[in-house]
Amino acid sequence: MTSSVLIGNLTQDWVESLRRWHLEYFFIPSTVVTLATLVANPVLLICIFLTRALRQETRYLLVANTLAADMLFLILNLVTLICNTVTAQISWLLCELVTALTVTSYCCAILTVTLMVVDTYAAVRWPLHYHDILPPARTHRILFGVWFLAAVYPFTLVVLMELERGPSHDNMAVCLVLISLGFIQLNHMVGIHIFFFVGALICTGLIFYCYIRLYMVTRTQGIWENRFSRARVTLLAHGLLLLLYFAPGFVFTLELFLFHRADISQDVRVWVSTVNMCVFMLLPRAFAPYLYGLRYREISDTLMQLLPQHWRLNQATVS
């Protein structure tokens, strides 16, 4: 049986499972969360890039890069959900490109939040030399390298698959990253699992190392004694957000592992994929503007300055 027939049968079965369990209703909360986040993120990006002091700080550039990657991911995810809900026919090449962009934006966000932890460690560990280690120009080059590193492997797979398949006019009723990579991994299984699983382990290990070293360096300074100290609250907020960012990636790795298992029913795969795509992957992007953005006093102050004067007066009166 050819790959086009396999893909056609799988996507048709996928659509039937979605309709049988009425999973298309997940589209409603996903759209609401996506639109709310797409309103908050540009506002924070404007605050960062309109203020010279903020766009010269490495931590704010990293926040901006995370928000930008999240916006790209949310837009692609929403477009994919809409097309899948109305069962629009999408060419295989277009689906592969959307898949590559989605993986790139997700991996870029993961790499950037990892760099945010490293940046915090560098600022605490070497406060006198921090600005010399990470000036804005070097941060820009690092962020460019992050996007390149996140994009090189997914787009290489697209090129390899196009060369292997040759000219094709096949269309798909459902375009999902899982389905695209599920068929690609037949020939590139080791590389895909290394890219996702090993990459996630490296980032996780680096994050744990930086946080442990931060605690060891600062434990004698008294900032951890108060149960509700700013250091504890910041660590809790960042830890929660990091968990929300990484958990969907590990679930997706599990999805890839179960994709070709004959003993796993199609309904289970559809349920896991839908919940991960419509819930788990949206949670960190919904919380990020508030946990990473508005918790910075400089961003909050800049946002208040951009608001209309009468609204600021009303807020001050309420406070």
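the 2nd protein, sequnce then structure:
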Amino acid sequence: MAVMSTHHPLAFAFGILGNIISIMVYLAPMPTFFRIYRKKSTEGFQSLPYLVALFSSMLWLDYAMLKKDAFLLININAFGCFIETVYIVLYIIYASKENRISTFRLLLSMNMGLFSFIILFTHFVMKDSVRVQVLGWICVAVSVSVFAAPLSIVAQVIKTRSVEFMPFNLSFFLTISAIMWFAYGLSTKDLCVALPNVLGFILGLLQMLLYAIYRKANKVIMEEKLQENLKTIVILSSEVHPVDVQPQSNEDHAQKVIIINDDEKNNERNLGTSNEHLQPNENAV
């Protein structure tokens, strides 16, 4: 095979495994977007990780096309650009107006504006001898931000004690993918590929650890909410309505007693008057 002949067998093996696992990483959010499609709402999900992942794939694709014998990198990043674009389009369709506007702003500023600037800078300003290296280190910086992008969701998990919006499959495959591409980078002596995956491995482990910690805590929260809902249902079915009771002074209480006594006397007088006018066959009610 021509591709294998340009790679060390070990590097080729890690590259193939990296492609397979990276495809699983790209496909891991599919249940999330199926949920978004089914509920017609993006709920608490954010578009930033997908925008940054698209930006990274675009840069790595350009890097792989400039570098020789990088077919495996071209293949996976071309797929990444396609699938991330699909995710972003679906997000824009079902996002709220505010989230849709913010997503459009990031898409225009980062994925179009900043990407165009980097391409123009590296292709027309940098010399041919250093162009690949400069673009490679830019890819490293962006890859670090890709792995750091889920940190906002990590903070949300710690704050809410809920892993609802941090899919375990994505964290797991990111960790395995980082291992494969780190090994591929070392085998091909490409530090630009190897270095960012060290951080990816660490952050992937952190996300899985948080999932293990807060997965049970999430169940406790759901049970507490269920109990609160049951209490609310019982109260509503019994037609219990809260009434604010204001403390009364002794003078107010005495005035109310006098008023009640006066009312009773007036009722007795009215009753007596009405009895005088009754016919023999009528009964006072």
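Residues 9-220 form one domain. Residues 191-237 form the longest helix (47 residues).
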